[in-house]
Amino acid sequence: MRKRKDRSGERHGRLRVVRFVEFDHDRRALWECECNCGEWVVVVGSNLGRVINSCGCLRESMSSMRARRIVQDRIGEQLGDYVLMADMGMHNERRMVDVECGECNDSRIIRFDNWKRGPVCRKCQSKRDE
Hints:
The chain is an alpha+beta fold. It folds into two domains: about 10-55, no CATH class; about 65-120, no CATH class. Helices cover about 20% and strands about 35% of the residues. It has a four-stranded antiparallel sheet, with no helix packed on it. Strands 5-6-7-8 form a four-stranded antiparallel sheet. The N and C termini lie far apart (about 80 Å).
């Protein structure tokens, strides 16, 4: 078996290599790492720093930042009856936004995904139907 380099103490992105675990079935070294967020993961040594830089929290935070930027860029835009007024943050892993009807000024907090479909204001719809 080939000799492995001791990588204990190395840092790769958000991961700190703690100790060697074992060789896997393909004879690749597996390392136990601690992430900055406190999670522990076992990583194939050849992937450290190239493919894997965190326990997965980096992808989540980047995704959240991207979604926040998308909402911020669309504030003031109208789809359907509603104008996007403000980003209200995350709730149950969904981005929530404050919207206001352009006609009757009815304000609601809805999912950003629902706003993108162009929702219709119920108050204004009932007036139109009369």
